[in-house]
Amino acid sequence: MRVTNRASTRNYLRYMNNALSDREKIQERVASGNRFEKISEDVSSGVQAMKAKTELYKTEKHLSNVSSINETLTAAEDAMDTVNTLLADINAKMLKALNDPTSSNRKVLAQEIGSMKEEILQMVNSSYNGQFLFSGSNNYGAPFSVDSTTGRLAYNGIPVDDIQKRDNGTYFYEDANGTIHDVPLNEDIYMDVGLGIRMTGSNVDPQTGFNISYSGPDVLGFGIDDEGISSNIYNLLDDIQKAVKEEPFDDSLIRQYGDKLTKMTDEFRGNLTDLGSKTQFLDTMENRLTKNANNLTNSIARYTGTDYIEESIHQSTNDAITKALYQLGSNVIPLSLMDFVR
Amino acid sequence: MRPTFMGFETAKSGLNVSQKALDITGNNLANADTAGYTRQRLDVNSIAPSSYSTRIAVNRIGLTGQGVEGLGVGQTRDAFLDKRFRDEYSSASYYSQANAILNDIQSALGDASDVSEGGDVFAQAIRQIYESLNDFSGNPTSTPHANLVLSAFNNATQVLQLLDKKLNDVADQQIFDLGVGVDRVNSILEQIAHLNKSISNDATVLQNPDNEYFRPNELMDHRNLLLDELASYGNINVTLNGDATVTVKMGNHEVVSGETFDKINMSTDEELGIVSLTWNAIGDSVQLTGGALLGYTDFINGRGTNMQNPGETNKQGILYYKDRLNTMARTMANLVNSVIPEMEETPDPNNPDGPPILTQKVDGNGNLVFKELISAKTADGTTDNKIPVTAANISVSDLWTQGGADYFISASGDKNNANYAQQISNLLTGQAVEFVSYGETFTGTFEEYLIDYTGKIGADASFYENRQNVVAKVADEYLNKRDEISGVSENEETVNMMTYQKSFNASSRLMTTLDDLLDTLINSTGRVGL
What DSSP letter does each residue of B346-393 carry, written as one string? Predict the structure, then answer.
């Protein structure tokens, strides 16, 4: 083999360039904290990192959904708690009316029941963070209103006594012509809390989303029972208020209303407990999602992050190689016979 | 009978040849690092005494020993290594060009060029859509939230437009570079033809026809250097002719023969984005199997399995990646535009005098009409849903832009918008949908499609980079082998220097000895006893 200067210097420069570009890459990895930048440098890790990042942002969004739902739920719970206390008070007032049916006393009690009734109306019309708590999908205005002539309650504009429920849980009413309509703005609203939303057309599978709409009729009751008594708490209280101050005092009617109120209060408490269990479920979800987010952050770091121990070893190796190359470079053109002839 | 003064001629020839050999040694040392220089050597042989020119047969012994003569200055070069090197160099240049284009594509697509947080260009846009739709579905009647959805879609369409523009820039740049390359090839071909002429007219060739050893070495070196460069543009086949000209075939087409040469014409189809190279003389398209020119055309015209038009190649090049971007834009528009029903008021059939009821609009063909959220932007700046949506023209529809939040949230009856928002979000990020390009389909979510797209350019770029590295190593090996033969070695030249110096000294010494001999012969002959 003939060794020529031209080949030696060319090869030497190539070695040197390789070593220096390796050095550059190590420095970049250490400084940026990323093991690579272009996906072509490590396709499989890059693709996995992209997938994990997609999962991560969704998980983070689920987490923020859960905490905002939780806040709204707590506000709803507070409102319902207040209503619950009021209902207990009203029950006590009714008993008082039965035990002391003097006309003046009953008038005062009717007055008190009336103002408590208004307080309940305010509670169910309350909003949190710009959202009405018991309005179904309506956020244009307060869901409950009272007809100024009849004094009866309407939900999203529909008298609650006219509202009926289908077996599938949706609400409807009959208009004056006997046509059946859905109660407007009372759709279920589902939010994605990481249960893997499944949809059929525009309908969310209720098993896969979290229903954040609380329909007014669910909370306060709707329709009229077989005995012709309103199954809505507000309207019932309206009836009770009237009956309490009614002359002559109808003892049995008050008792009938009282029984009805007890039954409705029980239902109402059932709803309240239901809300509590929802909050608990959300807490569990929050824990799970937080764990998922942590795991995903870790795997992203594993896929794309710099392994500093490995890099420091690379750096030392590269240092040694570069030093050796410099040394080699100082006599890359070796002594030749030329240097020895006189 | 030996002529009396014959020895002086012998000594003189030795002096001459040694001096010339030293000249060549000097020339080698001086050009040790000259690009393309091939080591030269003086070829010599011993002078043969001729006997047949005498009228009568004579004993030849008297005439032998006439010294040395220089035949010519030759090059040490191996044609086989030249061929192998050029073949590998063609391959290496092809892969290098392919890698350069794919790298440019990769750089244009932010999601691929920076896998860390900063580069998520389109992934970020999808994420923004997802988040805004999610927020909106929690607040389905809120105008600010509906506006955020609008701006998220605005952003996503603009990102698609930007990516498309960047891919166009890559194509423009590569087509420009190809033009420069074609000009260079044409100029090389012309220069080789001119060198053919100069070389075949050189005195050394004219005097030694059919002698492949003694040629105008410097011109030959220059021509070889040009042939090496030509090999980087396309696979070539070089044949050396008796008159020292070369015949060069590129692909299978003869491009240089003697003093004549062909050239390449380049044309671009602006609309299809296809470049084509044709031979000037015959008009046929340039067919190559290696070299940078093939790298350019393969990947500028590369449309993978989506090939539609003549001139396109099955490589996954610029056209392929543009196709897939268009598919992404079109699919997005189709999905988003098939969710929210367009409602209209019609009289209630049960109660013609009563209030009208809201039903979904039906077009002339009996198809249900949906709200058009995404549309194609025309040259006059308005959107038109009759034009197919591409990545270049995708835009939020004028209806949505002008209608603002109201277009998105109202007039859909009492069916709530949250579910539509949830549905759009689900279609774009959760549900597997079908992406149909011309020849290939992909089924998966939008994000999976993006990951597939990004992964593909990464895999392609990485494949061609690896190929380039491997082939370049082989080419380097041949370069080294060629230098082993043709390069200048200092040791060798020093040895030559000493050899020729000694030989010169010896010849001088011979001259002195002969002088002494003649002195004895002339001055001392016949003077016996004096």
Answer: E--TT-TTS--EEEE-B-TTSPBPB---EEEE-TTS-EETTSPP-TTT
